[in-house]
Structure formats: C-alpha cells, structure tokens
Amino acid sequence: MHKKQILVVEDNEFNREMLKEILSDEYDVLEAENGKIGLEVLSQNKESIQLILLDVMMPVMGGFAFLDEMRKDEELSLIPVIVTTQGDGEESEIASLEHGAIDFVPKPYRAQVLKHRVASIIKLRETAAMVNQFKYDALTGLYTKEYFYRTIRQCLDDNPEKDYTILCCNIENFKLYNDTYGREDGDQLLVEVAELLRKSVGEGAICCRYNADRFLCFLDSEMERLGRKLFLKAREENHSALVKNLSVKLGVYEVVDKSIPVEQMCDRAIWVVDTIRGIYNQHLAVYDDTLRNKILREQAITDAMEEALEKEQFTVYFQPKFRLQDGKMVGAEALVRWIHPDWGFMSPGEFIPLFEKNGFISHLDEYVWEHTCAKLAEWKEKGYSLIPISVNVSRVDVYYAKLVKTFCDLIDKYKIDPKYLHLEITESAYTENPDQIIKTVDELRELGFVIEMDDFGSGYSSLNMFSQMSIDILKIDMAFIRSELSKPEERSILSDIINMAHRMELKVVAEGVETDDQKNRLQTMVCDYAQGYLYAKPMPADEFEGWMNQAK
Ligand code: C2E
Ligand code: CA
Ligand code: CA
Asked: How far is the CA of 2 from the centre of ligand 2 (A)?
C-alpha cells in the first residue's frame, strides 16, 4: 500500500530533518524550504497530499501568505494545515487559525504528540470526505439520490402548507453522445447540464443526479414555473456547447399528496419525462391524470394478455405488397390484431411496444408465425398459387437462442418451402446487436428463408453497413418515405439509397404508400415493391383470399 503523503514547508533544514525522522515511518514526507516552493510542490501533488506542516517565518514567502494563496484554490483549501509555532507565540497561533490553519504544534517537536495529531486530523478529513461522498455526486457536485430523498422528505414534513414540485431532467440520446464523442466529452456535457439546471432553478432548489443522464430537482411550485422556463431558454441559447442533435427534456410532477413515498413522487416525474422520449420538439411534459390513466391502461393490458392468447383473441391480418412496375400482387405482410371482448379492436401500436418491454412479444410472435404457416399450408391445399408472406420478428426474438429451430420446426410441421416465409427484422435490431443478428440471419438465409430489413431510415444504420449484413430486401420506413417524397427531387436521397441497394443486389420495398403521386415518384426511382393504403389496407384472411383469387 502507498504511504500517505505529508508536505513539510519549513526553511530550517534541521527542523525538516527532525520532522522527517518522526514521520517517515508512516508517511511519505515531501519538503519545501519556503512558501513559494511549497505551493509548487502542492500543485503537482494536490491529489495525494493529505496534510501540510507549515512554518510561519520563512524567507521568500512566509506561512500566512502561503495559507492565503492556498485558500484561493477550492481544491487546495480542503487540505488541512498544521502550523508549527515558536514556543509561547499565542499571537501567531491565533493568526494561523484566522488564516485557515486547522491546528498548531509548538516547537520543539514532541514526537508522540505530533504523530497523534497528524493521524487524527488525517482521519477526520477522510471521514468528512466519506460523508461528502454519500452526499454529493462526484462528477457534477449535485446531491446523490439517497441524500436527496432524505432531504426532501424532511422538507415536506416541515412545511405541510407549502406547494412543491419535482422536476426530472433527462438528456436525450446521451448514450449515443457518449459512444460517439467519448466518455470525457460525455462527462463534460453532464457537468454543463447540471450547472445549467442549478443556475436556472435557483438557490432554494434541491437538485440531485438520479442516475447517468437524469437529474431531479425539488422546489417551491412558484419558483418551479420560472425555473423551467429559464432552463429551457438557457438550453437553447447554449446550443454551441450542447451538440446539435442533443435535446434535453423536462418532466414535471406537482406534489399533491405529500403522504406518498418520496421515491414514488420521483418515479412519476421520471415516468412523465420518459413519455416524451424521441418526440421531436416536445421538451416538457407534466404528470396528470391522463398519464395516470395511461399507466393504468398499460397495467390492464398486461393483466389481460395471457388470457387473450389462450382464448385466441389475437388474429392475423394480411396486407398485400405489389410490384411497382406492373401493379402485380407479389406478397403480403402478416400483421397482428387484438379483438378484445370488452375493449374491441386494438391496434398493435398500442400493445406491441408494451409487449416488447415486458417480453410477451415472443409468445405472441410465435403464435402469429404459426398461424401464418398454417394459412400458407391451407392456401396451398386449396390450390392458390402461393406468394410469400412476411412475418415480423421483434428485436426481442433475436436474442432468443432457439429462433432458428422454431422456424425450422414450423416449416417442417406445415410442409412449406422456406422461400414463402419472409422475415421482417427491424433496422434497430441490427444496430443494437449486430454480431448476434448477423449470426442468426446467416443461418436462416442458409436454410432458405428470405430476410427483409424493416423500418429502414427510422434509426441509425447507414448504407455502408449493408456490405457486412446479410439481407435480401430493404423495407423503407413509412415516415422516411413520406418525408423524402415531400422534398424537391434534387434534395431527396431516396433515389440514391435505392440505387445503392440495387448495386448490392437488394430489392427495395416502400412502406405506407398512400397517394398516386408517391407511387409515380417511386416508379421513376425504379423502386421494386410498394405496400400501402393506396393499394390495400391490412385485411382478414378470408378477404385476402379474394385478392389471391383475382391474382390467379
Ligand atoms: P410495421 O411492421 O412497420 O408495419 C407497417 C404498419 O403500417 C402496419 O401498422 C400497417 O397497417 C401500417 N400501414 C401500412 N400501409 C399504410 C399506409 O399506407 N398508411 C398508414 N398510415 N399506415 C400503413 P400496424 O398493423 O398497426 O402495425 C404497427 C406495427 O406493429 C408494425 O409496424 C410492427 O412493428 C408491429 N407489429 C404488427 N404486427 C406484429 C407482429 O405480429 N409481431 C411483431 N413483432 N410486431 C408487429
Ligand atoms: Ca413490418
Ligand atoms: Ca415497417
């Protein structure tokens, strides 16, 4: 173990030797012969020096001037200083304390007394540092979550008549920022945001760092309204420092019921800020009953999902895909629907994200895959000329070890050629876990399944990733199609994307085609396939059979 470091600032060489002899068994003793040199040694070792023994009378720079310089630096001022005084110098003892020394020892030195004093002062400082460690977040200097909870509980109990608000501030895409610019810049950004927050909410607020990129503030409701305005304004003005893509979101919870646990109050502020994640241009959300109802609704869905699967409340709809050139139906996508006995028809937009969060999606997906394979078998039996059906494979499914086997078992059971089963895997799954997905997808392609990358353009993947990824079809996200096709031709990158995909021998599907104008433009871009309301909406299996009949 390293010895603790002590700095002796003393012009008399004999005294320095004495101190060294007394202390060097237990400490690593650094020496300086006047205040000026002392400051130099100190600045080079400020993290390791635990204590300073200081003489008052020295040439070049004396003890008091040394103390005054030290106090100017926030970090240095935390290092304890013991002044060594001559005999009965009461005046210089008082002056030492006034200049910020913590204690004094008289000369000549008494070895045992000196050792004890040094040891106990170092210990005291370590204990204080430990208390601070629990109280303050090391990076931002805000309070820790634990200290925050305790303090606001106290504040609520002491001021039952006052109205308070809890603010949660979240930096959107912080992880991405960290990955892109490195940890140091990430840390710097957190410090800046913490500082901005502290300044905006004012002295009276209690702020803490809740976790990585989330901060909480507890403050008087009146002040809060002003504070949040100031903060959002300051954030905009500070754009140069906070990189372009970065957005800061605020969640507000007004404390109505002071009797509920503080943790729960904070959860609500955090919860509300999470509801606006990813929503462009919305920086503020206030917790209220609508939101509470949303939570309750989510809870109800979670409670109902297992029974729904057992009782076959889920059905599969099919939405045809068409070849753009001649309008021929060339495939379809299987999309799940939930028809609940009390709630009626539910769109997957409401329950799929929830199922992805709670893991139930893998059960539902297996059900949809099986149902789709059963339909393929049935249509083959009925003599339709088959077209490939795509099923959605959630990003959660990709982590499932038996994914490949599940699909193999299905095609065996229903005796279908795997080329009729297309698998749509969302783009974000590729960016989240590239190694795993490449491995799984390679296996599936080898077995004859066709892979479509879904929602391309909604996430972060780039075209140059394709060279390493094995896919067959690129499915371009509906929102991306819409925004690209609303731009003047020369500003749209869509046509370049299609060309590049073709060069890599990928086919391209455009999703969500709703107008003739969109269709025409896609045709000029030589996009291969289209799917959308312009052609057909998702429909139940028997209706879809009608379409297959016509296509015969
Ligand atoms: P997705 O895979 O991107 O599916 C396309 C969505 O766009 C479908 O919504 C479809 O009905 C809708 N759509 C198609 N054409 C148009 C159009 O022209 N205009 C508009 N406005 N919408 C159009 P749906 O069926 O509500 O599904 C939403 C999402 O839920 C799907 O997005 C998919 O991510 C997920 N999903 C649906 N069924 C399943 C499933 O069985 N398993 C999994 N894992 N996810 C599913
Ligand atoms: Ca899809
Ligand atoms: Ca899609």
From this structure: 60
- Cα–Cα distance for residue pair 70/551, rounded to 1 Å: 87
Q: Which residues of 2-130 form beta strands (DSSP E)?
A: 4-9, 27-32, 49-55, 81-86, 103-107
Q: Please work out whether the CB of residue 365 comes within 6 Å of at least one atom of ligand 1.
A: yes
- Contact (CB, 8 A) for 329 and 335: no
Residues 169 and 273: beta-carbon distance below 8 Å = yes
Of residues 265, 56, 310, 94, the one with CA closest to residue 165 = 265
Q: Separation of 335 CA from ligand 1 center, angstroms?
A: 6
Peptide bond into 108 cis (omega under 30): yes
The ligand placed nearest to the CA atom of residue 394 is: 1
What's the pLDDT at 481?
94
**In terms of Cα–Cα distance, which of 290, 210, 293, 285 is closest to 252?**
285
Q: What number of other Cβ atoms are within 10 A of residue 383's Cβ?
A: 7
Residue 11 is classified by DSSP as S
* pLDDT value of residue 18: 92
- Going by C-alpha positions, the residue among 203, 207, 238 that lies closest to residue 223 is 203
Q: What is the mean pLDDT of the chain?
A: 90
Flag whether pLDDT at 33 surpasses 90. yes
Lowest mean pLDDT among 60-64, 137-141, 176-180, 361-365: 176-180
Cβ neighbours of 363 (radius 10 Å): 13
Angstrom distance (rounded) from CA 254 to CA 167: 9
| Domain residue ranges of the chain, discontinuous segments joined by + | 4-135, 145-287, 305-551
Nearest to 278 by CA among 408, 475, 407, 428: 428
Superfamily of domain 145-287 in CATH is: Reverse transcriptase/Diguanylate cyclase domain (3.30.70.270)
Closest residue CA from atom 12 of ligand 1: 512
User: What distance in Å separates the CA atoms of residue 80 and residue 101, rounded to the nearest whole number?
Assistant: 7
Q: Does domain 305-551 have CATH number 3.20.20.450?
A: yes
Question: Residue 167's pLDDT is what?
Answer: 93
Pocket test for ligand 1, best of 305, 356, 366, 392 (most atoms within 8 A of CB): 392
CA 238 to chain centre: 21
- Average pLDDT of span 184-189: 88
| Residues with Cβ–ion distance below 5 A, ligand 2 | 392, 424, 454
Q: What is the pLDDT of residue 245?
A: 56
> Domain 4-135 belongs to what topology?
Rossmann fold (3.40.50)
Q: Rounded to whole angstroms, how far apart are CA atoms 161 and 149?
A: 19
Is pLDDT of 275 > 90? no
Q: What is the pLDDT of residue 501?
A: 92
